[in-house]
């Protein structure tokens, strides 16, 4: 009983943080049908609520009741943030718990299917990064290892999942882009904010930026800002290799057409601003033109909403594929599938079709 109480307490705290509630905030959301003092006892593992109160708490925290009794075997390693450092602690905890909770279900599903993958780092022997010119070499080596050629990359979240990097969608404030870490010592994870998904070029850039943090080894003398810039450059190099951008733009340009940039953006899934920034790094356009271009984008109100929208598919489907495979092979029940999907059974049944 003590062990069950402790498990419930740990899972209850995780769900509370995941939803961004304080104990008093949760009590208020429950209409004080469960007091703050009672919630405190649940979280400390002193007592487990009865079925009526458990149902109320589950609804308030958007989880199934069995969530609280499912062990969580997920240990996050050091987390590399982008803008999360400036976030309130409450929002940071919410992001971390969302990542942990999703991965606990994902890893349990793989365990049920008997799946064991070992991530192979294509850049493990690549030299320590000290300067920009190494970035293009690293991007080319990775593209070669993953057989990507020099053309556009389709569906980056799915590509990363195929290479055994877990991709997690996070519901967070718009200022948060992404993070990367390793789970249980050796499982690489990249999380990104689903609330930027209306700008798919930003999703692609964010995922590849975090991939740079995940795979590249940086000179310890580099500052955080320098590493950030190099990861920006890595994302640009992955989206548009040097040979490719020179074929698209030419060796040297005095001016670029916004329409021309829009066509390249539509093909390669890179923002026009990242494209011009990369062209400047490769000396295709000079500093003066780059500055003029960014001033023009600002004056036109295009810094956040560019005139051309990239339309593509940027969605990882591996979790759902594994889930329905497990159901079809009768390794798990529909009820267990709903639990792993963290959905109510009735909702899960309505969208599930197994022949």
UniProtKB/TrEMBL annotation:
HTH cro/C1-type domain location is 12-68
CDD domains listed in its UniProt record: HTH_XRE (cd00093)
- InterPro entries reported for this sequence: Cro/C1-type_HTH, IrrE_HExxH, Lambda_DNA-bd_dom_sf, Rad_response_metalloprotease
Q: Which SMART domains match?
A: HTH_XRE
**Which Pfam family, any one of them, does this sequence belong to?**
HTH_3
Q: Which PROSITE patterns match?
A: HTH_CROC1
Family affiliation: Belongs to the short-chain fatty acyl-CoA assimilation regulator (ScfR) family.
Do you know which PANTHER family this protein is assigned to?
ANTITOXIN HIGA1, BLL7220 PROTEIN
What name does this protein carry?
Answer: Zn-dependent peptidase ImmA, M78 family
Please name the source species. Parapedobacter luteus
């Amino acid at each position: 009983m003590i062990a069950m109480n402790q498990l419930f307490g740990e899972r209850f705290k995780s769900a509370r943080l995941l939803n961004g509630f304080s104990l008093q905030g949760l009590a208020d959301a429950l209409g004080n049908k469960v007091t703050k003092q009672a919630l405190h006892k649940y979280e400390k593992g002193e007592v487990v609520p009865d079925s009526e109160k458990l149902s109320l708490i589950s609804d308030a925290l958007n989880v199934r009741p069995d969530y609280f009794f499912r062990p969580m075997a997920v240990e996050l390693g050091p987390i590399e943030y982008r803008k999360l450092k400036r976030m309130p602690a409450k929002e940071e905890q919410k992001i971390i718990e969302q990542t942990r909770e999703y991965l606990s279900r994902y890893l349990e599903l793989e365990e049920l299917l008997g799946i064991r993958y070992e991530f192979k780092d294509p850049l493990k022997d690549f030299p320590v990064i000290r300067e920009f010119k190494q970035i293009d070499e690293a991007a080319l080596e990775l593209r070669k290892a993953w057989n990507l050629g020099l053309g556009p990359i389709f569906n980056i979240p799915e590509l990363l999942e195929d290479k055994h990097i877990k991709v997690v969608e996070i519901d967070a404030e718009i200022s948060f882009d992404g993070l990367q870490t390793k789970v249980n010592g050796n499982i690489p994870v990249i999380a990104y904010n689903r609330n930027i998904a209306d700008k798919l070029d930003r999703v692609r850039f964010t995922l590849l930026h975090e991939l740079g943090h995940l795979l590249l080894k940086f000179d310890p003398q580099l500052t955080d800002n320098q590493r950030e810039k190099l990861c920006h450059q890595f994302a640009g190099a992955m989206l548009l290799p040097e040979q490719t951008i020179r074929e698209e733009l030419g060796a040297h340009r005095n001016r670029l057409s916004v329409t021309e940039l829009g066509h390249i953006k539509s093909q390669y899934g890179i923002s026009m601003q990242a494209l011009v920034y990369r062209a400047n790094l490769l000396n295709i356009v000079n500093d003066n033109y780059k500055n003029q271009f960014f001033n023009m984008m600002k004056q036109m109100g295009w810094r956040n909403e560019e005139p051309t929208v990239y339309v593509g598919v940027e969605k990882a489907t591996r979790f759902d594929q594994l889930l329905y495979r497990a159901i079809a092979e009768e390794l798990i029940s529909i009820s267990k599938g709903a639990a792993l999907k963290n959905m109510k059974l009735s909702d899960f049944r309505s969208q599930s079709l197994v022949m």
